[in-house]
Amino acid sequence: MSSRGKRKDEDVRASDDESESHAPAKKVAKPADSSDESDDIVVCNLSKNRRVSVRNWNGKIWIDIREFYVKDGKTLPGKKGISLSVDQWNTLRNHAEDIEKALSDLS
């Protein structure tokens, strides 16, 4: 019988000892209305559920392009989206002409 794919008893005991001392940290959900030093300025709505906003979060400025959803009458940010630092935004903005050219080449 092949030992391929099977663990040795020593490996099992070692991993059991480690799992007791290194429990994963629990995530704590924040209430939706809690103040976490986040200030949003909605710049524009791209569609019904997508918007561009500029935010100051934890002392850093981010340009956020994100989908939103409505739950219990509240509009909440979804997982789908991107937050760009000011440097990343400047890089994207500096390439706007290249993006326009690529769009016209594909059209």
UniProtKB/TrEMBL annotation:
<keyword id="KW-0539">Nucleus</keyword>
<feature type="domain" description="Transcriptional coactivator p15 (PC4) C-terminal">
    <location>
        <begin position="44"/>
        <end position="95"/>
    </location>
</feature>
<dbReference type="InterPro" id="IPR045125">
    <property type="entry name" value="Sub1/Tcp4-like"/>
</dbReference>
<dbReference type="InterPro" id="IPR003173">
    <property type="entry name" value="PC4_C"/>
</dbReference>
<keyword id="KW-0805">Transcription regulation</keyword>
<keyword id="KW-0238">DNA-binding</keyword>
<feature type="compositionally biased region" description="Basic and acidic residues">
    <location>
        <begin position="7"/>
        <end position="23"/>
    </location>
</feature>
<dbReference type="Pfam" id="PF02229">
    <property type="entry name" value="PC4"/>
</dbReference>
<feature type="region of interest" description="Disordered">
    <location>
        <begin position="1"/>
        <end position="39"/>
    </location>
</feature>
<dbReference type="GO" id="GO:0003713">
    <property type="term" value="F:transcription coactivator activity"/>
</dbReference>
<dbReference type="GO" id="GO:0005634">
    <property type="term" value="C:nucleus"/>
</dbReference>
<dbReference type="InterPro" id="IPR009044">
    <property type="entry name" value="ssDNA-bd_transcriptional_reg"/>
</dbReference>
<dbReference type="GO" id="GO:0060261">
    <property type="term" value="P:positive regulation of transcription initiation by RNA polymerase II"/>
</dbReference>
<protein>
    <submittedName>
        <fullName>Predicted protein</fullName>
    </submittedName>
</protein>
<comment type="similarity">
    <text>Belongs to the transcriptional coactivator PC4 family.</text>
</comment>
<dbReference type="GO" id="GO:0003677">
    <property type="term" value="F:DNA binding"/>
</dbReference>
<keyword id="KW-0804">Transcription</keyword>
